[in-house]
Records
---
Amino acid sequence: MKVLVTGARSALMGQIAAALIGRGDEVVCLQRGPAEFNGSDSATQVLGDIREMETVRTAVTSCDAVIHGAAKVGVVGSWEDYRSINVDGTTNLLTAARDIGVSRFVHVSTPSVAHLGEALVGGAADPAVVRAEGAHYPRSKAMAEELALNANSAECAVMAVRPHLVWGPGDTQLVGRIVERARAGRLVMVGDGSALVDSTYVDNAVSAHLAALDALVPGARCAGRAYVISNGEPRPVTELIEGICTAAQVPFSPRRVPVRVATTIGSVVEKLWPRLREGEPPITRFVAEQLATAHWFDQREVQADLNWRPEVSLAEGFERLAQWFSREACR
Amino acid sequence: MTGDRFLLPEHRQIEVETPSGIHSWNLIDRPGTDPEAPVLVCLHGNPTWSIVWSRLVSELDPRYRVIAPDHLQMGWSKAADPHTLRPYAQRVEDLTGLLDALELSEPVWLVGQDWGGAIAMGWAVAHPDRVAGMVLSNTGIAIPTRRTAPRLIRLAASPLIGDLLTRRTGIFVAGASRLPGLGLSRDQRRALAAPYTSAARRIGVAGFVADVPFTGDHPSAAVIAEVAERISDLAIPVRLLWGPKDPVFDDSFAEDLRGRFRDVQLHRISGAGHLAVLEASIADMVHEAIGEAASPARGQVIADAPPVPLWSAIDARAADPTPAICDLAGDEQVSFAEFAERVRTVMAHLQARRVAAGDRVAMLIPPGVDLIAVVYACWRLGAVTVIADRGLGLGGLGRAVRSARVDHVVGPTKALVAAKALRWAPGAAQIAVEDLRRSAPPAKAAPNPQPGDLAAVLFTSGATGPAKGVRYTHGQLSAQRDALAATYAITEADAFVAAFAPFALYGPALGITTALPDMDVTAPATLTAAALAAACKKVSASMVFASPTALANVLATAADTDRSAFGNLRLVMSAGAPVPITVLREMAALCPNAQLRTPYGMTEVLPVADVDLVAREGVGAGRGVCVGRPVPGCEVVVIPVAPAEPRICAVGETGEVLISAAWMSDGYDRLWHTERRARGASPLDFGPDGTGARWHRSGDVGHLDAHGNLWIEGRVAHLIYTAQGPVTPVPLEIAAETVADVIRAAAVGVGPVGIAQVVVVLESATNTTQGAAPLEVRDAVRAAIASATANYPDGPVSVAAVWNVASLPVDIRHNAKIDRAAVSAQMEQVLSGASLSRPGRSRRLVRGR
């Protein structure tokens, strides 16, 4: 199978591309700069912007399937940036895929598209909600997911995968930031860290996307649907963060911030930060809510529909993370 | 009770022609999926309408067709003659007109509430061949003896105020949905009042109230009295579902009706009130009432030989001067001869106070000679002793006595005053226990109660929910005495210390000397080693019966005690709650010649199995707690908790524990539905279609091993339904408790059934902070559980969180049974990030200590 992977410069998408090559699939990558991953030499790399239709067509041409993971993440940037990259970019890919006759399209989404701030205990993948207000990222991703699922057809099967809190070696988003802050003595815990949350060890996120690609044919049960994927082993937030710190051998002694304070600060920071500072802010409202409320999901349906099981347990994941950190330290 | 439960069922209108014109009936008509199933006709009361059946209709098995009309002039039904008063006889006649027009397949089941019940009874009397059975809820057909007409209704029926309340204003209509009970949602209250928006629309409401016959010359009085007479001729099954909080049709009406029908059962729905049919879920009860009637009558278990009466040993030793009871707390001692005389005296007093065979007598007497004497006097007379565990607390005691509907209350004057003030037993005769000690003329000869006659109703404190009354007959209590004697090889040469209140009552029946140690029996932890030693010495005890908590305190205070008193003990028996093996080991060291025995059983049937310390050490570790092999005469089987097909579990397979023994209790008092659920004809014949009463469903889960040992793994209600299948809590707790520093652990589930996550909550010896347990403890607990569950068919159990609390909620009586339901509810809150909405709530995991 020839598969187009977009956004392969991110850790997850790079590993997905690597896994596809590893099992013998042909891979085309589309991202702005050269991507490096295991076997990236044997991938065809198309460099460019998904907002440009011609570039997208070039990349999609002759592919059988698409895993679309390119997106603008975080909170810094104008709505126009988020909309054009996440919404228009997705439209371009869907259009090209349909025109060229791609039969499988896996859209990489995020649980935040359906997150409304309340606790999710054993939840299902509820439909994406496009909010008029709120952070740019979840809003634009919600619009993108809606577009993607609406594009599901008898010729081109489309599904959305929402990986929940992916972490693992080399992950700069979650692991990198926690370790960096813990090292600097600036680790903050929202509330008492008691909320039970799902997370996904990166290898399981990768295998889930591959399983999705394999299960997704026009008319399949998973076509036209969105699924949250996770390790299926929810843990209190505090335990996950402590686990990451322990693996990295950095002290775990967070300062505790009441939930209300954190969400308030988060909302303010979210608005002001882009105007004042560079880079990602220390906290956003979304992150504060994520850290303070339970969100874990019923994994039975996704495991059945994609014929997939997470292979790496959390305990095993932390073990691998610790090994990776000690190898890094030796370098 | 939430608004979203409240669905409006489909209504339709039909017109019925009568000599007086065309009536327009509004009715719920839910089609049934099974044309063979009987049709239900549900009749509402005043001032409601058919909507009162909405919950039943939405929850009832779809196979039944349900008809629920609004009576004429009520709800949305219109009479041809809108202003004519419709007395009772007319309303019964109206129903005939409607049912004739509907041409239902008959006979039908009538379901009636309030006035609807009275109309149902009237119709059944008039058309006995058209009625298959009745379910009646909070209704009546006559004012019960010992009761005056309900005050609320008298007020509503008084000429001037009544009209103001019922017709001219909506006070009566609004008030009816705000009576005490489980409560209704705002939507439900609004819907109930919806048709009655103006005085003109409340004509029917006022008419019903005016039709209550308070005086004999009331036009409806004679008709209703005749129905009340004739319903006893009906051979149909009648099930009474009662909201005991109803201020109008209270328990006395239920009792009145119970006395009138031939085939009748009562189920009191705890906490519910007048509109129990809407407040609570009754669909299963109605379904099972119909199912029960369709299946053959329950079998009676008949013992081979007539049992030896409970008082035989007392008669046999009536001249014996050896001590029978030594109460070291009350400082009183009686010999067997004196005790026999005391029982005769009490009998004479009770006879003089008109305590008759079959009467129910509540015991508010503290443990001691008086209590034991009154209990045996009642048994001898054939009266039924109602005994509530003092561990229930004042509220629980009151609920128990009230629900048992006693005829007499015996207790110290102080307790009687309290019982009267709290209205525990309105109408019951009060007997001061002090009076029963005075000398009395000889007791009159009383016929011996038969083995099948009721002897006792026992209320013990459950871990959760209101206490249930457990009925025992004379035959069952005799069999229980014999089972205890056989299991523990008890002979007249034995003498025992009863530090566990219920067992003190068995001394005279077993014909052995009993000592009550100096302790507060309501608080087992008050038994000291010195008090136990004194009691043992006093009677040269060969046996001690004590709860695990009491033994733990004995060990804690044993340092300076004279241990020689324990040298004579051949048996130490501990029951009532799980017994920690460490307590047994230390007791064994304290009592070198004693066997340490722990029976397994429950209020409903005891003993079931028994194991001694040596055997328990011998079997080693396993899944759950080993409670030994079933005692002779007791059968135990295990069945899957939710089987696709009824079957018996294989050896080693976990399921619910079912028990059968001659000493099993008769059933639950005034809890027909609970009893039905708990009893079956055979292990494969439980549930809605089961009949007969030979088998008891224990509510415990466990398994039998290859040697026939029973292992208990927790309660059915505490099963954790994970994505890998149901997980039992006790094996996880035992594993967690092997971790250093862990005193006590509770394994509970959070999240929806089918994908619940396992959470282990710990009490630690050194760490009383609330929150995630320290990393080392978490790892150790997870490792211990993974290793204990390594052989589970679905793989080792994964633990989502290991949480530390200051103390776990435990039962008051034993300070040992963990209230897992409460722990689970708390952890649901904590692990959902509850602090977001309610700061501080997650800190309240403390209770009972």
---
Amino acid sequence: MITSDILIIGAGPTGLFAVFEAGLLQLKCHLIDALPQPGGQLAELYPKKPIYDIPGYPEVLAGELVENLMEQIRPFQPGFTLGTRAETLEKQDDGTFIVTTADGTKHKAPVVAIAGGLGSFEPRKPQLPGLEAYEDKGVAYMVKDPEIYRGKRVLIAGGGDSALDWSIFLADIASELTLIHRRTEFRGALDSVEKVQELKDSGKIRLITPAEIVGLGGDGKVEFAEVQITGSEEAAERLEIDAFIPLFGLSPKLGPIGNWGLEIEKNAIRVDNTLDYQTNIPGVYAIGDVNTYPGKLKLILCGFHEATLMCQSAYQRIYPDKRYVMKYTTVGGITGFDGSRKEAPKAVVRSID
Amino acid sequence: MSEVKITITDREGTAHQVDAPTDMNMNLMELIRAYELAPEGTIGICGGMAMCASCQCYVKSEHPLPEKSDEEEAMLSEAFHVRDNSRLGCQIHLTDSLEGLEVEIAPES
């Protein structure tokens, strides 16, 4: 059981900044995210894209903003449960909540802040008859343990970075690696494209483009794929394989959060924006892109604001009897849970002769 | 204020004729969102960076449209339900030349 003061679901910019604001109030946070790394959309979809509307930054790359946020919250030692989705929310008799992730980890906290953005990123599955029947029987939408492909005949489909990167990585592990893409052009980092070209030239990767997989077959597990060369008159060719990894990107889905008894409107969680971004379940807040209220804007800077107000409310909820007033960081500095201390240098008071 | 009329068929098959402003630096994806012709969270997920294909549309009229950029071409090559007349709504800038444009929003995937 992982315990914290605030359990944050979603490690995007809003969730990460909430750790900072909570830290100023000496509240400890733990974050859950379905993606394997923190940063949410910024890290997953567009790490190299510039953002122009973060106050104080005329321009910042999405990936850089995530790095900066991670640096900013480091003194507050957030815990992370990554690569697994929050599945259930249960309210305990003592008023605390237990959130269980898909991998079975239980997280307990008196306050839950859902900073889930557009939802959890789920792999996009190609429209292939019979595909789902072979899931975990040779078909996987993400590579969890590359070793299971050792000595196997692996087929990868897709034209983006993950298709390129895994083709490169698995070329050394698999006995045969085939990469199929609908076009001859790939959409990925230039050095990955060049590396695949090299591996193709040296015979380590078999590249079939432009082509599509039109069928799968096998008895109890995937044993072959039918490959249709685009524009060819000839019938689809049968390719013997042990594993098929379709990598067509990720698409966000609200997922299990939608069944937690929260008020859902327009694929988002309805919150009280007049006060503290609390949902219809007291103690459960929703901040950032995942929430909705009249006039809502899905902007990172709005998420930061919402995170800040949420933390103040969470503090009151956890310590109803404590008196507290907000303190500026320029005055109070930052005292990390790791013992670190940052503060403004003291002005020198000295008489002038 | 300048406007053109655009007919958008939603994912349920209902056609809507809407006034599309051409002086607000808007694109077709944003127009669909502005008129709420597809539920929030099912369109324009990447915000208009040609990175998710949630705004894929089929162009049903013969209007001359700007060529696809490499990014759009690449995204459409990975998307599902793609047809010859598929375009990403976020890459279609609303201009006066689009008067009478007819599009259909592609299924969610």
